[in-house]
Amino acid sequence: MAQLDLQSKLAILADAAKYDASCASSGSSRRDSRGGKGLGSTEGMGICHAYAPDGRCISLLKILLTNSCIFDCAYCINRKSSNVRRARFTIEEVVRLTLEFYKRNYIEGLFLSSGIIRSSNYTMEQLVEVARSLREEHDFRGYIHLKTIPDADPELLSQAGLFADRVSINIELPTESGLQRLAPEKDGGRIESAMRDTRAAIDDGADAKSKYKSAPLYAPAGQSTQMIVGADTASDGDIIVRASALYDRFRLRRVYYSAFSPIPDASAVLPLKRPPLMREHRLYQSDWLMRFYGFKPAEVAGAADASGMLPLDIDPKLAWALKFRESFPVDVNRAPKEQLLRVPGLGTKAVDRILSSRRWRNLRLADVARLTLSIAKVRPFITTADWIPTLMTDRADLKALVAPRQQQLELFAA
């Protein structure tokens, strides 16, 4: 590998890290340097944006330790056979970049991943050493997210959680068959085993912390994972069911979806075109329905068409409502929260406002309009003290009435 200066390495390895979507920082514990001790705070070229527990948008230095890799996963731009420019940071360079970027007020934390060099254990040792050096040698109290390697020794994975706020292990692809076809060097069972061990370590750490104040925090922001969408033949229904199982079994903070992007000199087994970015967006919306709206995976998957794909022109909640119209209309003055959350156009905040307001009076359509963003989308699916949709819910053209209008945007519009 040719000798590169630090700026050249940063340009290469920050660009290589852009394919990793899972860099949010929500759920981290509070650390700060007020009082004169330590450096950095989790509350308070290579920079990404994430969200702190209080909702603030914060900046992270998002880089790879190296984009060299001994694996040859067909979908990865950094695979062994890929003709890309390679670079590698030393541990000291990553530590120095993190501290200098923080002192210049560019960032508030670090997101660090890596290709596999020499072996999984060797690479994992390097990642852990970066985090350890920042925490113990420099008393860095900012946010650290480490992307761990499931093939590494469990003891190394355990050490990662002692220094990082969040750890993540990529599940890579939604199905085992897709993983075997596109990344035969990776083992789905080993990936899940590593996620299970991490979950157990997080639980043990939380239990110890509840009993002993001096117990160290262990990955206080939990663990997450990421799936590539569109590289294999998995349908949206397959992805939804897989994501739900991961949430249930490992209590993940997030499952991230990354739309497959065609890469140079790609394998013939990969699709020639990337999936629509709207597909990625609809999967995030379906994820939200399961996590915050009480939908079961089978119900969300039920909104898909015969091929298992969610519609791209309307959101999954509206698609479900149009497909299962017998569940509507819903009486906003009497229906429980679980039913109100299924009404298209009603978010969690709007439902809470409705539940609070109806304690004092019977709500009319105008009242609901003041509590929501779009009464036109809500109206066909509810009844109020002065409104009954009569046959509106059964209209054949209902989708056209409630679907968002397609609008051509202008780049230089006033």
UniProtKB/TrEMBL annotation:
It comes from the Bacteria. CDD domains: Radical_SAM (cd01335). Its cofactor is [4Fe-4S] cluster. Keywords: Iron, Iron-sulfur, Metal-binding, S-adenosyl-L-methionine. InterPro entries: Aldolase_TIM, DNA_rSAM_put, Elp3/MiaA/NifB-like_rSAM, Endo/Exo/Phosphatase_dom_1, rSAM, rSAM_sf, RuvA_2-like. The keyword Iron-sulfur applies. Gene3D superfamilies: Aldolase class I (3.20.20.70). Residues 59-286 form the Elp3/MiaA/NifB-like radical SAM core domain. PANTHER family: ENDONUCLEASE/EXONUCLEASE/PHOSPHATASE FAMILY DOMAIN-CONTAINING PROTEIN 1, TYPE II SECRETION SYSTEM PROTEIN K. This is DNA modification/repair radical SAM protein.
